[in-house]
Design brief:
The complex is a heterotrimer. By secondary structure, chain B is an all-alpha fold. Chain B is built from 8 helices and 2 strands, in the order αααβαααβαα. Chain C is mostly helical. The chains are: A alpha/beta, B mainly alpha, C mainly alpha. Chains in contact: A-B, A-C, B-C. Chains B and C meet through α1, α2, α3, β1 and α4 of B and α3, α4, α6, α7 and α8 of C.
Chain lengths: 216, 203, 192
């Protein structure tokens, strides 16, 4: 056997190697990252500490401050997204989430109408190993109730007054309006159509454009 | 799964540029080693005198393809994170044809023209300048071709996906085609290789 | 047997000195070994960066940079180059640009080691230097347009896409060979 092997030229040896590897490769099933391993205990611990929630008012502050270190993800369908979404959000339906190009260390804030889909999405991304995932507490419903259409106290104490002013300012900023007294109106969505672009100067925009540059 | 390292956040953009430089060095080194800094050697492929272009290119493809297949099979490489250029049927076929024209007219392709310029070829430099001019022209005229440029998209598609074949089977088929091609190339070179490029190469 | 002067014309004009220099140049590497080397470099790019090799993208970056220096307002209206003007970063902070600089360096190293670095013009015996240089320029223009349409050149589409079994890349690769073989007969005066 050895004699036969040494009688081959280098090129023939290379060819033999290639054919052997190719033959074995017939059974190959390349991993595409959709199968994940979960450390259940680790996840339970993370859930218990609740450090991964973001309140709507905190998010509102970030947006007003023009922070660019987060990505806001709207998990609803395209139609819902088009009719209204929180400014600086990008639309990633749940089904597309596992393959969406997030950076592993990016801060990702998820929201849906309430909390169910965002919680499920959070779990998905955690399982895939993303460690910067946050849930918007209360989702879009909370955003509407607290930021867009906040209920202001009727007879505000001095402390309340400062809070009311802030709420009013925020509400107007996002195109909503504060509700006073008992008037609970089923208001139409704000006329302001938030720009559908990515967070300003952001990792998101750059990533989306960089993807185009990843080719030759 | 720990690779691709960059996509797992193991280092940042700045480091990736350094890595680009390092990888480029390897790329340029082997291009020149193979003699691809020489237009006449490259063009000999198309006159059937010296099929080194075919041999080098397909060996590289087979090597990297086997590497990717095995690494992702054993779970080290996440293949879904490796960038795949989307398929646009018509523009890519048309573009490929024009690329072929440019190759045989100019004697280089973009990568090899850089290697040629590095080793002193003035025609390599002119070729580079031509690329810049052509890119400039394309950028200026883009709105006219934009429709064609984005037509007939099939998205990110691989051959196994499109023809619904097992990945490994296609890999094996490519290896067989390549090795057969190498054997045939040897025959062709013996038949046509007498004239043209001076014999500088291998066993 | 052919002598070097039949097939190689140097510019400035060939003298004995260049004939000696030519003799001293080392032979090329076994193409299969070179191919394995190249393939491993490509594999390294996949494993480290999650992308393959390329070249034409780096040239896009250079053009974007030059345009920005000369006429920034106009540059920003170029849709084709839009990806290079994201944020404040220079268009040259582009992976492919650094890679191309590496290609230059690596080729230079290999050339120096093999004593293959000479200022010269590669051409066939029947054509003049001026015509050859013009054809080289023209070839580059064609290549740029082809690469823009095909989303890559031989490195990006044939090598990278080939290894990844990318459908469009294999199509482009076949067409590259087809186009070159088809036109070879008509430009043989340039090389033979």
């Amino acid at each position: 056997m050895r004699k036969w092997m040494s009688a081959l030229t280098l090129n023939q040896k290379l060819a033999l190697l290639a054919l052997t590897l190719g033959l074995v490769a017939i059974g190959a099933r390349p991993m595409r990252g959709s199968v994940v391993t979960i450390d259940a205990r680790d996840l339970a611990r993370i859930v218990a500490t609740e450090v991964d929630h973001v309140g709507v008012e905190e998010l509102a502050d970030w947006i007003v401050a023009g922070r660019s270190d987060y990505r806001l993800v709207d998990l609803r369908g395209a139609a819902a997204f088009a009719s209204y979404h929180i400014p600086t959000a990008e639309n990633v339906p749940l089904a597309a989430l596992p393959d969406y190009p997030f950076g592993r260390r990016e801060k990702i804030v998820l929201y849906s109408d309430g909390g169910i889909h965002s919680a499920q999405a959070w779990f998905l991304l955690q399982a895939k190993g993303y460690r910067g995932v946050y849930i918007l507490r209360g989702g879009l419903d909370e955003w509407k109730d607290t930021v867009l259409f906040p209920r202001l106290a009727e007879n505000p104490s001095p402390a309340d007054r400062a809070a009311n002013e802030k709420r009013t300012y925020m509400s107007r900023h996002f195109g909503g309006r504060p509700l006073t007294g008992g008037a609970i109106q089923a208001e139409a969505m704000p006329v302001e159509m938030p720009k559908v672009e990515m967070p300003a100067a952001s990792p998101a925009a750059q990533l989306a454009k960089k993807k185009r540059k990843e080719g030759c | 799964m720990t690779a691709p390292f960059f996509k797992y956040g193991m280092f940042g953009d700045e480091t990736s540029l350094v890595i680009a430089f390092a990888i480029g060095i390897g790329f340029g080194f082997f291009l020149e080693r193979a003699g691809f800094g020489s237009a006449r050697k490259l063009v000999s492929q198309f006159y059937l005198n010296d099929l080194a272009v075919f041999k080098v290119m397909f060996t590289a493809i087979v090597t990297a393809m086997l590497g990717v297949t095995y690494l992702s099979w054993i779970g080290i490489l996440d293949l879904s994170l490796v960038y795949l250029t989307p398929t646009y049927v018509l523009p890519q076929l048309a573009g490929g044809l024009i690329l072929g024209f440019g190759f045989v007219v100019g004697g280089y392709c973009p990568g090899t023209s850089v290697a040629a310029f590095a080793t002193g070829k003035v025609d390599g430099l002119l070729y580079l300048l031509g690329i810049l001019a052509g890119t400039f022209a394309f950028a200026e005229l883009y709105p006219l071709v934009a429709r064609f440029h984005t037509a007939t998209s099939l998205g990110d598609t691989t051959i196994p996906q499109y023809f619904n074949l097992p990945y490994g089977l296609v890999v094996f088929a490519v290896v067989v085609v390549a090795v057969s091609g190498f054997w045939a190339a040897g025959l062709v070179e013996r038949a046509f290789g007498a004239k043209g490029v001076e014999e500088r190469s291998h066993p | 047997m052919e002598t070097r002067s039949d097939t190689l014309e140097r510019w400035p004009s060939a003298g004995e000195e260049s004939a000696v220099a030519a003799k001293a140049a080392a032979p090329y590497m076994n193409p299969y070994l070179a191919g394995v080397g190249l393939g491993l470099v490509l594999l390294a790019a996949f494993v480290i960066m999650g992308r393959g090799l390329g070249a034409s993208g780096g040239f896009n970056a250079i053009v974007a940079f030059l345009m920005n220096e000369v006429a920034p307002e106009h540059a920003k209206t170029r849709e084709w180059l839009a990806g290079y003007f994201v944020g404040d970063a220079s268009p040259l902070k582009e992976w492919l640009f650094f890679e191309i600089v590496g290609v230059f360096t690596g080729a230079l190293i290999s050339g120096l080691l093999a004593r293959r670095v000479h200022v010269e013009v590669e051409k066939g015996p029947r054509v003049s230097v001026g015509v050859r240089l013009a054809m080289a320029f023209g070839g580059g223009v064609l290549m740029a347009i082809g690469a823009a349409l095909a989303r890559g050149c031989t490195s990006g589409q044939a090598l990278t896409g080939g290894a990844l079994l990318n459908l469009g890349s294999w199509g482009a690769m076949l067409m590259i060979f087809a186009g070159a073989y088809a036109l070879a007969y008509f430009v043989r005066w340039e090389w033979r």
